[in-house]
Amino acid sequence: MMNGTMTDDLLPAAPPPETEAPDTLATAAREAGLRSADLKHQLDECNGDQKFLEKIVSHRDKEWWLHLKELYEREVERLKRLRQSGNPSIGPIDELYRRANEQASQMPTKFPSNIEWHAKDQKIAINGNHPRYFFDKYKFLEAIIDDEKFRCTVQTREGKLGTLPADPNAILEKVRYQLDRLFSRKFDGHSFLARVRQAYLAAIKAQNNAREGDPIPLREIFSGITKKAKAYKIDEFIVDLSMLVEKGPAATAGYRFELQQTRDTQEGILLLGTAGTGMVNLMIFKNTTRTP
Questions:
Q1: What is the C-alpha end-to-end distance of the chain, expressed in Å?
Q2: Is 203 in the same domain as 279?
Q3: What are the pLDDT digits (tens) for 117-176?
Q4: CA-CA distance, 202 to 285, in Å (whole number)?
Q5: Domain end: 69, 85, 103, which one?
Q6: Is the same domain home to 99 and 112?
Q7: DSSP 8-state class, residue 159
Q8: CA distances from residue 171 to 143, 158, 180, 266 in whole angstroms, order as listed
Q9: Total count of domains within the chain
Q10: pTM of the model
Q11: Same domain assignment for residues 56 and 122
Q12: Residue 24: inside a domain
């Protein structure tokens, strides 16, 4: 003490700041979460690898070389990771990719004879000239080949049904499914006409100034049918309407239907077979019991 005061050196030391004890449980929970996220990421990668390799095997076994080529080129990052990890599948996959490129280079010259041979082998009717092929007597379902992109578009007059790599067997697999969907359904003319009539009446009721006998667009009638049959497609409607015109019945509950022709290729519908004498777009129902 000097002059009755204490120097700083002699002052009592300040107590250390209080620190919270480590929360062991919270730390353990965070670490477990990090491990869980890492394991989930690894699991997702493994599941993705499994699906990728299964597709490779499937394409190889089916000899879908263009599918294999497209898959290989789409999965660059996955292949890079598998290559870096020394995965033993890389060698066989690279060899398959080499073969796929060979097949792709031969496609423009060999495709026409290949698809015709496979179609005959699978008893699927085919006609047309490369790059456009038809698969039914109405030329309603078709496949268009893009030689530069090695791809095929399957479609009807109403639009695309899908695109895929242009392996003949893959195309025919999709074509068979669409042929069955369009033409192998059981057709009941009486039931179909009753549904058409119901949709027609609903459309009349929805319009303020419309009345029985007024023309209603066919596409509007189709939309009315799909309110209760959501899976029903416009191309199926065209097939069914064509069969109704050809086979009947022509009337239901005392009302006969008639179709009106149009030159409007956007709204018009070209029916199949003998029913397709021109584009139609409107339907009316006339009372067959009314006397003149």
A1: 134
A2: yes
A3: 999 999 999 999 999 999 999 999 999 999 889 999 999 999 999 999 999 999 999 999
A4: 13
A5: 103
A6: no
A7: E
A8: 8, 19, 14, 28
A9: 3
A10: 0.84
A11: no
A12: no
Distance, CA of 40 to CA of 48 (rounded, Å): 12
d(CA 234, CA 182): 10
pLDDT score for 212? 92
| C-beta atoms surrounding 169 within 10 Å | 17
Are residue 137 and residue 88 in the same domain, yes or no? no
- How many residues are listed for the chain in this entry? 292
And the tokens for 242? 């064509």
Buried b (16+ CB within 10 A) or exposed e, 256-288: ebebeebeeeeebbbbbeebbeebbbbbbbeee
Say how far apart CA 183 and CA 103 lie, in whole Å: 33
Check if the beta carbon of residue 282 is closer than 8 Å to that of residue 213: no
One domain, residues 94 and 122: no
Verify that 209 and 279 share a domain, yes or no: yes
Is residue 119 within 8 A of residue 172, CB to CB? The reply is: yes
The domain containing residue 135 runs over which residues? Answer: 107-183
**Is 270 domain-assigned?**
yes
| Dist. CA 129–CA 154, nearest whole Å | 15
Helix residue spans in the chain (DSSP H): 24-62, 65-74, 76-84, 90-121, 168-183, 189-206, 218-226, 234-247
For the stretch 89-111, what's the b/e string if a residue is b when 16 or more beta carbons lie within 10 angstroms of its beta carbon? eeeebeebbeebeebbeebeeeb
Instruction: Give the whole-angstrom CA distance, residue 198 versus residue 187.
Output: 18
Arithmetic mean of pLDDT over the chain: 92
Encode pLDDT of 240-268 as tens digits. Answer: 999 999 999 999 999 999 999 998 888 89
